[in-house]
Amino acid sequence: MRTGGMRIAEISLPAVRHNVRRIKELSGGQVIVVVKADGYGHGAAIIAQAAMDGGATMLATADLEESLRLREAGVEVPLLCWLHGPRTDFGAAIEHRIELGVNNLAQLDAIAEAARAAGLQATVQLKVDTGLSRNGIQPSDWDVVFARAAELVAEGTISVRGIFSHLANAGADADRAQAANFDEAIALLAAHGVEPEMRHLAASAATLSSPHLHYDTVRIGVAAYGLSPLADKTSAQLGLVPAMTLKSEIVALRGVPAGTGVSYGYNHVCETATTLALVPMGYADGMPRALNGSGAWVTVAGEHRPIVGRIGMDQFIVDVGPLAGRLELGEPVVLFGDPERGAPPVEIWAGLMRTINYEIIVGIGPRVLRVPVEEPLAPDAVEPDEAIAEPVRSDA
To answer: SS3 for 229?
Structure first.
């Protein structure tokens, strides 16, 4: 039995549907929504149906365990996963109708062996390395792997639904070079008689900035959750709506005189008499401890108020100053959310931590209850700018 909602991440289903629909309209093709890392911290099972309702063709995770958890949660939509260890049970994937990204010949043969053992056909997507130098079939192995895939298709052991790669986002020239390599891989696979229905290279950044990289499918992560993958464009400028609003509440209020030290180490001392509010959220919940003294703020009663003193494992302190007489215990505190609704954007934390918004949202801890909500979108929150910049960062 739950005893209260001190730490809540509200997940806007209308925002997710809107974001996927926006990407589908922009790309004009199929859309794969990546729900790895528990839906980028939003709750993969919560995101699944909203993404499909927005027009997604399928969902994707990094590894098989993530996909199997979705199946266990009752999610029956098409799933793809592509990061496999040497002991991965491909039989479980085939049994649960999960498509498998293939990164090398050994994986392809192992998948074929598992398919024969199960008496079922495996569906795969061939992942090729075009320059990111992570996983994916190396260019020197393309010919032999593609030839083997064609043999397995001919015997009915596998079907090849897609071919894909991942951009390094190292600049426009590097992206074009990777696209040229991808085109070469597609042509070589076709020469072996295999022409998949899905070809995807663009993740969120390239989808929003480089139409020439869309092919027939795009594969988005952070954009589905309404966050910008571009350093010089906000979510609103891209026509996206942040889906997560991170909330807590005030559990204690105390008036203090000037000169009062606050939290561990007294690195903050109140210059004047004020009121301090205690909020039960800390670094165990994904709130960076290094926000201490950084100038970060939250929204209380619709106003911006500063975080003061060191952030603890379970709690932090806000100087609510002149709001004190208007506040009661249980008053909501918004840590970040949609700035079009007056919430602090998650990018404030990311900027202060010299990181990207991705890292903040996936770091929200398990004590935070994810709650799906159907609250309507703000009417003026979804008009994008005309100009879209080149991608400068991404980690989808």
So the answer is: coil
> Token pair 């569906």 is at which residue?
123
The residues pairing with 252 across neighbouring beta strands, listed in sequence order, are: 278
Percent of residues in the chain assigned helix, strand, coil, to nearest 5 = 35, 20, 40
Element (H, E) at 305: strand 303-308
CB-facing half-sphere around the CA of 280: CA atoms within 13 A: 15
Backbone angles phi, psi at 59, to 5 degrees: -110, 160
Structure tokens at 363: 């770091």
* Spatial separation of the C-alpha atoms in residues 230 and 205, rounded to whole Å: 6
Per-residue burial over 48-76, b if 16 or more Cβ lie within 10 Å, else e, is bbbbbebbbbbbbbbebebbbebbeeebe
159-213 confidence digits (pLDDT tens): 999 999 999 998 999 999 999 999 999 999 999 999 999 999 999 999 999 999 9
Region 120-140: mean pLDDT is: 97
Active-site residues, by number, are 36, 264
The answer to whether the beta carbons of residues 203 and 167 sit under 8 Å apart is yes
> Closest by alpha carbon to 295, among 303, 286, 304?
304
Cα(115)–Cα(98) distance, integer angstroms: 12
Alpha-helical regions (H) of the chain: 13-27, 36-40, 44-53, 64-72, 90-95, 105-118, 142-154, 172-191, 204-209, 346-352, 357-362
Q: Is the pLDDT of residue 396 over 70?
A: no
* Largest separation between any pair of C-alpha atoms in the chain: 80
Per DSSP, the three-state class of 102 is strand
Give DSSP secondary structure letters for 233-287.
Answer: --TGGGT----EEEEEE--EEEEE-TT-EESGGG-EE-SS-EEEEEES--GGGT-
CA distance 83 to 354: 28
Q: Is the dihedral of CA 371, 286, 58, 19 positive or negative?
A: positive
Is residue 372 within 8 Å of residue 46, measured between CB atoms? yes
